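Here is one chain, start to finish.
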Amino acid sequence: MEVSKDVKKKKSEETVQDEVKNQETQMGVELTDYVDVTIENGISGSNRNDLIVMRYERNADTSIEKASLVAIKGTSGSVGEDPEYNTGNILDGGDLIDDMPLFRVKIESLTITAVEPLFTVLENEPISIEFINSLFEE
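Its structure:
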């Protein structure tokens, strides 16, 4: 999973934008902005892993697509394990929901102890078609 950091010109004003590319879907958030994602409280004495994902959705009736950041709550227990998330192939048009995990939020008891990125940042590197195709090979 990769996140590219691009510098773009907008109306002669330079802005930096992070783009998350999930198969052929893009979502951007300005570096000077943020998106709130709610993480539910932990349980005293238990551990939990939550995932923050970019969720792609396509309405089957209208074919309108959207992408949003969503928190997926894990199960509390003695060991934190990542929750299940939607995996689909949006390229063939068959799947309507696909999640790309971006961060793991580790919760021990009532405290968030770590937020771990689950992606690689590409710093304006040229990317070949072969490299992009390799990301989708099984």
